[in-house]
Amino acid sequence: MTDSSSPALRFGLFMPQIGCSATEMIAAARNAEQAGFDSLWIMDHLYAPGAPQFDTLESWTLLSAIAASTSSIRLGHLVGCNPFRHPSLLAKMAATVDQLSGGRLDLGLGWGSVEEEFGIFGFEVGTRRERAEQLGETIEILRKMFTGEPFDYTGTHFRLSGAYGRPTPVRGTIPIHIGGAGKQLTMPLVAEHAQWWNCVASARSRFDELAPLRGAARISVQYPVGVVIDESSRSKVAERTARRMPESGWGEPLIGTLDELAEKFASEAERGVELAIVRFHDRADPDTLDRFGREVIAPLSGG
Question: For the segment 1-34, what is each residue's pLDDT rounded down to a tens digit?
Fold first, then answer.
């Protein structure tokens, strides 16, 4: 059993839209909302890296549909690919989805690490360092756009003259999450610009090394999770988890019964994690979401 004195932990569901219809994604969001998940996160790619044969819905259009079909769950990307959109367009899109959702958008951003994708779809991008610099300028522009007041901006990569953003976000601004684990390019951006640092699943083994570099940013972490309902299914769950979320990209998975998982996540909260973002082995089966909500989320969130 978990200790009731442990720090409260919120949970997000990562549901990448790979081979899923819009109807299935909306249903998953509603199920997660009902189960007590704090947030739903989707991916921002023009194809599914490693699985190009599957359909992949465009992320912002999909997020708009989910926003209109839910009422309380927060919404975002893990993470938005900054090179895909000019900062002024991104600010307009973000403010619009925030309005559609009643102020439930969290803006996840990264500087774009899947370089093959840029070549496939014809995006001319700079070096990794240049893309990191662009992300920093993007966030500066976003914050100015979110005020609704006219401004000029002169950076190394972007220049705006008399720009402004209308409508503004519901609460005046939108929380910014930066995902990644690079000491030289990503963590300095987190410390300077982000409200949240999202530690990608593959970097969890370096958490203690990276966390001190985040500045004042709060911590969210991604976890591949296999839920064992019946002990006889443990090996099958482990095999399915490894196939869907291989350790090469996701790190060591969390596999266990609901009681075991509750203990593991309680330990993560003790380490300073405030938001655990999970991806399930079974593509968020409704029964899994319901059980996880009752037996893991409720006791750990104080609900």
Answer: 455 567 899 999 999 999 999 999 999 999 999 9
- Tell me the fold of 10-301: TIM Barrel (3.20.20)
Rg of the chain, C-alpha, whole Å: 19
How confident is the model over 37-82, as pLDDT tens digits? 999 999 999 998 878 889 999 999 999 999 999 999 999 999 999 9
Q: Is 91 in contact with 165 (CB distance < 8 Å)?
A: yes
Residue carrying the six token digits 């969210």: 220
Please give the model's pTM, rounded to 2 decimal places: 0.95
- Phi, psi of 300, deg, nearest 5: -85, -25
Place of tokens 């958490």: 207
Residues 6+ apart with CB under 8 A from 301: 8, 9, 10, 11, 36, 38
User: What are the start-end ranges of the H helices in the chain?
Assistant: 22-35, 59-69, 87-101, 115-121, 128-147, 186-193, 207-210, 234-244, 247-250, 258-270, 286-292, 298-301
What are phi and psi for residue 167, nearest 5 degrees?
Answer: -80, 165
15 vs 5: CA distance, rounded Å: 30
Q: Which residues have a Cβ under 8 Å from the Cβ of 28 and sit 6 or more positions away?
A: 13, 15, 20, 40, 284, 289
Among 280, 86, 261, residue whose Cα is nearest residue 201: 280
Query: For residue 7, what pLDDT is reported?
Result: 85
